[in-house]
Design goal:
Helix content: 10-25%
Strand order of the largest sheet: 1-2-3
GO cellular component, one term: extracellular space
Subcellular location: Secreted
Distance between the termini: 42 Å
InterPro entries: Chemokine_b/g/d, Chemokine_IL8-like_dom, Interleukin_8-like_sf
Protein name: CCL13 protein
Order of helices and strands: EEEH
Organism: Anhinga rufa (African darter)
Shape: globular
Largest sheet: 3 strands, antiparallel
C-alpha cells in the first residue's frame, strides 16, 4: 500500500521556527499519535510541508482565528 505523505512524523531537525503567513497556509494536520513528537504538519500553497510546534504562539493564534472565522454566525 502507498503511504500518504500525511502519515509523516516530525523529527527535531524538521521543525521550522519562523512564522508562516496565514495567507500561504493551505492546510494543516496533526501528526499521527504513534509519532514521538507532537507536531502540526502545515502545507503551504506551493505544496511544501513544514513541521510546526503546536505550542508555537503564532500557530495557536492562526488556529484561533481560523476557528472564530469558521464558526461566526
Amino acid at each position: 500500500s502507498v503511504r500518504s505523505s500525511y502519515s509523516m512524523c516530525c523529527y527535531k531537525n524538521m521543525f521550522i521556527r519562523e512564522k508562516i503567513p496565514a495567507s500561504r497556509i493551505r492546510d494543516y494536520q496533526k501528526t499521527p499519535p504513534h509519532c514521538s513528537r507532537k507536531a502540526m504538519l502545515v502545507e503551504v500553497l506551493n505544496g511544501r510541508k513544514f513541521c510546526v510546534d503546536p505550542e508555537e504562539g503564532w500557530f495557536q493564534e492562526y488556529q484561533w482565528q481560523k476557528k472564530s472565522t469558521s464558526t461566526s454566525t
